[in-house]
Design brief:
Pfam families: Peptidase_M14 (PF00246)
Shape: globular
Family: Belongs to the peptidase M14 family.
Helix content: 25-40%
Low-confidence stretches: 13-22, 366-380
Largest sheet: 8 strands, mixed
Organism: Caenorhabditis elegans
Number of strands: 12
GO biological process, one term: proteolysis
Protein name: Peptidase M14 carboxypeptidase A domain-containing protein
Mean pLDDT: 90
Bound molecules: 2-acetamido-2-deoxy-beta-D-glucopyranose, zinc ion
Length: 380
């Protein structure tokens, strides 16, 4: 479209000028008032990296069953020579139908990129930390869940692994069902005796063996890679729904990491901050204790196998009482993004404060040897 009116012309100039004041940061258009499809996410993630090369880098950590890229960004000014920055991780989870979580992850990218050099807090984060954001860790399932309003498809949860014909249903055996629940496929508490996770027709099918899926292997390998192993200090994985701030561990009841108190105190502070915005009330605890055990979870595995300290799952709004509300009305996406971001800031502030005198450990692993005895963050 040509710019015909002088007024509009001035407005365009003003917008360009404002962007300059913002240090040239810009984000591609992404409409957070509607639910978007995968191509919009893909274009946005690639575009935001392309447009902001001085502090945003595109990350492709692997490919899905159907060949889609697992995309994210690293937001952060480059480290000073000879230094490793502390890293944090935000993701929109891996459950296909949980569209709001994917969109909230984009809201976080918007917040960080647009806030750099215009918001003091965010400028500090971008300078001090490397912030990894992976909006969609199961694009195949997401694409599938967008193809129909039929409940079986729209409420799809798993990836798109080919059918397995050993499924069971009421009074039936040898039923063929597709898909693996990526959040049951990690190597923690995994057992062929786990019912219903051992049933291919369950929504929560764990897969034939731990890390049978390319999507979970990609996350595992990146988490263990020299790029972030030993410097990743906090990780928040978003799901919907329930308003739960979930602590580890979830593969067994009443089972906690030794630093659970620190994780709980920070979670409560973050949840209080979220509440202050519009009274969205989160319950804090392990999902195993609040809801029931779930083996093979991504965040449990990460907490157990890496020195990453603050590891959380957020079940975003609405609360548990709202039945089948995986897709809140899209006009809620921005308010949910805003309030959740306030909680994320509490976590980032704590990470910055707590790691002031830390030197991240050197990369010593190439993906096989790390376990909970690995060196913790070393204090200078
Ligand atoms: C199908 O699922 C069962 C139950 O987990 C598993 O034992 C079997 O190996 C799977 N088959 C294939 C071809 O993956
Ligand atoms: C990396 O893995 C290979 C085998 O996969 C092994 O031979 C090598 O020693 C490992 N390197 C480190 C630094 O752990
Ligand atoms: Zn989920």
């Amino acid at each position: 479209m040509f710019v015909r009116s002088p007024c509009l012309y001035l407005l365009v100039l003003l917008v360009i000028w404002t962007r300059d004041v913002n240090g040239g940061a810009r984000t591609p258009f992404f409409d957070l008032t509607v639910y978007n499809d995968w191509p919009q996410f893909e274009d946005y993630i690639k575009g935001v990296a392309h447009d902001n090369p001085s502090f945003v880098q595109l990350k492709t950590i692997g490919r899905t069953r159907e060949g889609r890229p697992l995309l994210g960004v690293r937001i952060g000014k480059p480290a000073l020579p000879g230094k490793r920055k502390i890293a944090v991780w935000l993701d929109g989870g891996n459950h296909a139908r949980e569209w709001p979580a994917f969109h909230v992850a984009v809201y976080f990218i918007e917040k960080l990129v647009n806030g750099y050099l215009s918001d003091d807090k965010i400028t500090k984060y971008v300078e001090t930390l490397d912030i990894y954001v992976f909006p969609v860790l199961n694009p195949d399932g997401f694409v599938y869940s967008r193809t129909s309003t039929r409940a079986m498809i729209r409420q799809w949860r798993k990836n798109r692994a080919p059918e397995n014909c050993t499924g069971t249903g009421p009074f039936q055996t040898d039923i063929c069902c597709e898909g693996v629940d990526l959040n049951r496929n990690y190597d923690i508490g995994f057992s062929h005796k786990n019912y219903p996770f051992n049933n291919p027709c369950s929504d929560e099918f764990q897969g034939p063996r731990p890390f049978s899926e390319p999507e979970t292997r990609a996350v595992r390998d990146f988490i263990m890679s020299s790029e972030i192993y030993g410097r990743l200090y906090a990780l928040v994985s978003m799901h919907t729904h329930g308003q739960l701030w979930i602590l580890p561990y979830n593969y067994q009841k009443r089972t906690y990491p030794q630093d659970i108190k620190d994780l709980e105190i920070l979670a409560n502070r973050a949840a209080d901050r979220v509440f202050a915005y519009r009274e969205t009330k989160y319950r804090v605890g392990t999902a195993a204790d609040m809801l029931g055990t779930a083996t093979g979870g991504a965040t449990d595995w990460i907490k157990k196998n890496t020195p990453t300290k603050y590891v959380y799952v957020l079940e975003l709004p609405p609360d548990m009482k709202t039945w089948f509300a995986f897709q809140v009305k899209p006009h809620w996406l921005i308010p949910i993004g805003k309030e959740t971001w306030l909680g994320i800031e509490v976590i980032f502030d704590q990470v910055v404060e707590e790691t002031k005198n830390f030197q991240p450990t050197e990369p010593t692993t190439n993906g096989t040897s790390a376990d909970s005895r690995s060196p913790r963050f070393r204090q200078l």
